[in-house]
Amino acid sequence: MWSVFENGPTAEKVDLLVIGEGYTEAELPKLHKDVERMVAKLFDTEPFKSRKKDFNVRALQVVEAQSGVHRPRTGDNRRTATGVQYNIFDSERYVLTLDDHRMRDVASSAPYDFLEILVNEKQYGGGGIFNDQATACVDSAFAEHVFVHEFGHHFAALADEYFTSPVAYATSGGTEHPEPWEPNATANGAHPKWGADPGVPLPTPWNKKEFEKHSRAVQAERAKLRAANAPEGEMDKLFREQREWETKLLSSQQYAGKVGAFEGAAYESHGLYRPEIDCIMFTRDEVGFCRVCRRAIERIIDQYSRP
What we know:
Blueprint: E1 2-5, E2 14-23, H1 28-42, E3 55-63, H2 100-107, E4 114-119, E5 126-129, E6 133-137, H3 143-156, H4 208-227, H5 232-251, E7 262-265, E8 268-274, H6 291-304
Parallel strand pairs: 2-3, 2-4, 4-6
Antiparallel strand pairs: 1-3, 5-6, 7-8
């Protein structure tokens, strides 16, 4: 275990432990660089940037005999110390460990409130469960995005705001939606629980039809690439093109940057709403967390830290 940075006693700070998984002894210098890169991205993102003094970050190296982690769909079989693997919930991109005992046994080497496991793999993937764990593969082109996005789930119970990607969870797809417990999704578009900026209509109009059409075409191409076991560089290229297109469309909308109630959230195209038109919980665009997500994150920081 080593200290990335420390700002005070564990009882007075948010303690984040980053575990490196799938690294051989020869790859430990790479782990140190990966930790520095990922942690730097998190604390370059608000509100973590402004609240960095409220955190301690430590890293833990786990030496494995083979590079990488278990990938059932490609036949790359590994047994790692934490049990982390791809294909959780039968989703090719979902990475977690279901062996809580093994994960906690490894993590007991250091004080922590929150855990993020860095996975030494090129294939796009990660996962995050509130108050449990977050993971991110380190060598895809979008590794830093995944690290921060999944930490949002784990740290502040933020909901996924996207609704066109295939997910493992059963969704209603109907007309009735209970109010989500997550702070950044609501079923009440006319009176969202986070309020709205002055002059923003509720629900808030945006070019949802054009966005959906393009996004579903991207998902179809993504499925083809995975089925063909295409090189990861092709997936990265697809995601870059998608990011460029979505950034241009969403930033051009009338209420971009405003808090309102934009339909489409939590895997549902209709009946659930997100606070802003774009957010790191919605797309891979370089927009960071929306203001509602930032407030939710700061509430958790306040719970774990002392001034």
